[in-house]
Amino acid sequence: MTNAPLYDAAKHRITELVRGRDPQTPVAATPGWSVKDVVAHLAGGLRDFVDRRFDGVESGEWGERQVRDRRDNSLEDAFAEWDANRSLAEPLFDSPMGSVLISEVVQHEHDLRAALGAPGDRDGVAVRSALTKPLQQLDQRMRENDVPALRITLEHGDRVLGHGEPAGTLRTTSFELMRAIGGRRSADQIKALDWDGDPDVWISSLALFGRHRPEPFEE
Question: Across-strand partners of 169?
Fold first, then answer.
């Protein structure tokens, strides 16, 4: 099944959410970026996916470059570029890249919702789909590093990450898990979730990009 409808729905929600708002509104989930910058990143990032340009992903420079290169553009410029790059990206949605694009757009949708005081769409298929690729990546990382297996209990069922019998359980929602592993929660916030077992065993493994947020983030 193609991921295109899920991506387009999130893109539409973001467009409706942002239009008519102050484009310079700070987005606390992505420090240093404004609403306009997040949209510019989504537009530029989609083109980088098309071009297979991923230099600087690990360091964070990948996204910073997209924002920096578009600093003088307007929000409407960002939307126009996003539309153009969405057409170019059509083949990606039926490839393994499709689930990565869903994770990217849905995570940033909720960054923008938090910035604009408009929470919503936390318990639908979009958030669950946004976890598909990150959980695959975390599972692989835990197996490669011999981290004890962890059972994660979500509202729609259980998932075991790692190899063998689970040595602990984390009970949370899909939304909270998405935000936690995506760098939108501090280590202390993650440790305060509903755990069976010592969260310190898994806390570093649950940082998808190698780091948790240094300060708590509430939304």
Answer: 151, 196
Residue among 178, 170, 188, 168 nearest 208 (CA): 178
Could you tell me which residues are beta bridge partners of residue 152?
Answer: 159, 170
Residue 41 token pair? 């990143």
Percent of the chain surpassing pLDDT 90: 94
Q: Does position 1 have pLDDT exceeding 60, yes or no? A: no
For residue 46, CA distances in Å to 32, 56, 138, 209 come to: 21, 15, 23, 19
Q: What is the mean pLDDT of the chain?
A: 96
Q: Edge-to-edge strand order for the sheet containing 168-171?
A: 157-161, 150-154, 168-171, 194-196
Q: Is residue 179's pLDDT more than 60?
A: yes
Q: Kindly report the backbone phi and psi dihedral angles of residue 193, in degrees, each rounded to the nearest multiple of 5, phi listed first.
A: -70, 180
Within 13 Å of residue 128, how many CA atoms lie on the same side as its CB? 10
- Is the pTM higher than 0.90? The answer reads yes
CA distances from 44 to 8, 54, 88, 189, 204 (A): 16, 12, 12, 31, 30
